[in-house]
Specification:
By secondary structure, the protein is mainly α. It has ten helices and two strands. It is globular.
């Protein structure tokens, strides 16, 4: 067995993890938020996302070995985005009473890496006129800026919304949901519509879930958003 063949063994595991994550995402979405079953399904969802992250690494290496450097860089960037979203999904619940831990060094490092990777992806997209790369690359610098703004605000003794952790939690879940739907549509739409223009399918598969994620986040903000804020406690500069 060659090294490339060994890397291909991770493909089925990646597909299984992605399929499970997609199903669990919708199961958790329809369950009562905060219920014991919702929490258990959420834990299973994060486990499936972890499988995706772990198996993505050899698949990125496989893509690189096959000479598709641009795609391998892009996939590595997307994997980093998913990693920070998974971290925030769990950390928002675990550290709801400790914002300092949520805005800790780990998320700062992840945001910095994602921000730099996003800039690299934007440059790759511009040089190759690949607008999908440009569009998704902008997420990295935006995330870095938003994280930096939150860190600076809390060091100045700013205030947090009472349910800030809830917004961080569902925001991260929506982001990961968009990622799993993109992967699903990339595979499924070309098979459902074999005669359709490939460029149109790719744009719909990439940007459709992204637009839906923004709409879902806006709806969740309206439903669960709060009007008052409270001083940040337990945070020092």
């Amino acid at each position: 067995m060659t090294f490339e063949q060994a890397l291909q063994l991770f493909v089925p595991l990646h597909v299984i993890g992605g399929t499970a994550a997609l199903a669990l995402f919708w199961i958790a979405a329809v369950l009562k938020k905060g219920s014991p079953l919702h929490r258990r399904v959420g834990q299973a969802y994060l486990a499936a996302m972890l499988v995706i992250l772990i198996t993505a690494i050899p698949l990125i290496a496989l893509t690189w070995m096959r000479g598709n450097v641009v795609m391998s860089v892009f996939l590595a960037y997307l994997t980093a985005l998913i990693a920070i979203s998974c971290r925030n999904t769990l950390a928002a619940i675990r550290f709801r009473e400790d914002p300092a831990r949520f805005f800790g060094r780990d998320v700062q490092v992840l945001a910095f890496v994602v921000g730099l990777a996003g800039v690299a992806v934007i440059v790759l997209g511009l040089t190759r006129q690949a607008w999908i790369l440009v569009g998704f690359g902008m997420i990295g610098p935006f995330l870095l800026t938003a994280t930096g703004k939150a860190i600076r605000a809390r060091r100045r003794g700013a205030v947090l919304e009472p349910r800030w952790w809830l917004k961080e939690h569902y925001g991260a879940v929506v982001a990961n949901g968009a990622a799993t739907h993109i992967a699903f549509f990339q595979i499924g739409m070309s098979r459902l519509f074999p005669n359709a223009d490939l460029g149109v399918i790719q744009n719909l598969a990439w940007f459709g879930p992204l637009v839906a994620a923004f709409v879902a986040a806006a709806w969740l903000n309206r439903r669960y958003g709060v009007q008052r804020a409270q001083p940040i406690e337990g945070i020092s500069s």
